[in-house]
Amino acid sequence: MEIEQDYSSLENIKKLQNEQFLSHLTYIRENSKYYQKKFAKSGLDWQNIKSLEDIHLLPVTTKEEVEMYNLEFQTVSNQDIIEYVTTSGTLGDPISIGLTREDQKRLEWNERRSLEMCGITAHDVIQITTTLDKRFMAGMAYYLGATALGAAVIRSGIGDPDFQLDNIKRFKPTVLVAVPSFAYKFGNYLLGKGIDPKTTSIKKIVCIGEPIKDEEFEPNTLNEKLSEIWDVELYSTYASTEMATAFTECKEGKGGHLLPELIHIEILDENNQPVPHGQVGEVTVTPFGIKGMPLLRFKTGDLARVHSDACSCGRNTLRLGPIEGRKGQMIKWKGTTLFPQQIENVLNHISEIDNYIIELSLDDLGLDKLKVILPDHLDQGIIDRAQRLLQQRLRVNPILEQNTAAYISSEILPKGSRKPRRFVDKREAIK
Ligand SMILES: [Zn+2]
Fold first, then answer.
1. Residue 283: beta bridge partners?
2. Is 1-326 a domain of CATH 3.90.76.10?
3. Whole-angstrom Cα distance, residue 347 to residue 76?
């Protein structure tokens, strides 16, 4: 099922977005104690917001705000909640979100649209290799969307390559939903078993949680490595629990298409002003139609840029480029400003480096101290190469240390965590 509005004129898309925005705003005005209070305090008159063009008159909503007043953001009684989920809490405390029946239907629609964007149909068999429990929204969303589409789902869950392989043998899935670094690891596991991933039934990988493109839409190292071992089309998708909406790439792979009936996007600078078109800034979203915990102008903390030039697929919707960094993760190291993602991109070039963690703390003077911890089985030659490459590509010389593989693994996936990380920010803990 192709969605007409995606191919509609810009004017029609704008009209649709405007209608969705106004009904979302009306719902919030009537039901959200938090926003009623917030707007009263800021002296904002709701009557002044006549269309989507006026959205800039509304104050933004920060993650800290939602964390601090979490329960007040809920606009329905607990009786109307059918499921509770939380955000992954990679920075700070996780946020709790209650979904109503309508929210679940909306999520199902969103994910169905997202899978269709990747050309997935009712004929596909989809193996979901992400967390399907632990209060996680994404896995469940994929499950709902895939079944609504009429595709078959295998709830493989996270990790356990043996079990993943068993599913491939048994059900011949055509699609993997996976964190790309896991798909890479799993591909290598198959090779180790004498199975060529290229000969399996998998034809597409829907990648979540990690970027596979740079800002020019060129494949990054992870992408290249994946393409070496798998014979698949790779699709990137970007979403978060708070927005409950995905930006998914079409076959052209030039950024994730916006779903106009579900979300509005702005790219803002530090003063909450729009950045010049095509520049990088903070992704700020207004997801439409959410009933349990509706948000207005929510600042995600993710840095990216928007593209509005025509996409060769024929859709006229805006596209969101790859996430280029996290706002809270900016590192100032000896006069240079950089993001952990840039260090990851460099380290991924050295195939001997199979594991590492980037650690940021404060030194005695309160300055950023940047450390990369590598496994102790690597010899000095490889450590020197990493140092040289970081210096050449990024002009930085982080402190390179070595530690046991067990230590690194425990830092990547700390106990109780469900989302692997490559970057640990210890600056807050020290302050
Ligand atoms: Zn497209």
1. 267
2. no
3. 47
**Crossing angle (nearest 10°) for helices 180-192 and 161-171:** 80
The residue written with tokens 């052209």 in the block is 252
Distance 314 CA to ligand 1 centre (A): 6
Spatial CB neighbours of 408, under 8 Å, sequence gap ≥ 6:
355, 356, 357, 373, 374, 375
CB 328 within 8 A of CB 349: no
Place of tokens 């920060």: 62
Tell which CATH classification among 3.30.70.660, 3.40.190.10, 3.40.50.970, 3.30.300.30 matches the domain 330-430.
3.30.300.30
Ligand 1: centre distance to CA 265 (Å): 17
Question: What residue ranges do the domains of the chain occupy?
Answer: 1-326, 330-430
Query: Among all chains, which residue has been given the structure tokens 């967390």?
Result: 131
Query: Per-residue pLDDT for the chain (431 aa), expressed as one digit of tens each?
Result: 568 899 999 999 999 999 999 999 999 999 999 999 999 999 989 999 999 999 999 999 999 999 999 999 999 999 999 999 998 765 567 899 999 999 999 999 999 999 999 999 999 999 999 999 989 999 999 999 999 999 999 999 988 999 999 999 999 999 999 999 899 999 999 999 999 999 999 999 999 988 888 888 999 878 998 999 999 999 999 999 999 999 999 999 999 999 999 999 999 998 999 999 999 999 999 999 999 999 999 999 999 999 999 999 999 999 999 988 888 787 877 777 788 888 888 888 888 888 899 998 888 777 788 999 999 999 999 999 999 999 888 888 899 999 999 999 888 888 777 677 888 888 765 43
**Distance from Cα 5 to the centre of ligand 1, integer Å:** 13
How many angstroms separate the alpha carbon of residue 322 from the centre of ligand 1?
14
Q: Tell me, in angstroms, the distance from the centre of ligand 1 to residue 2's CA.
A: 13
7: CA distance to ligand 1 center in Å? 10
For residue 311, how far is its CA from the centre of ligand 1 (angstroms)?
5
For residue 324 the two structure tokens come to: 């280029």
53 CA → ligand 1 middle, Å: 25
**189 and 160 in contact (C-beta within 8 Å)?**
no
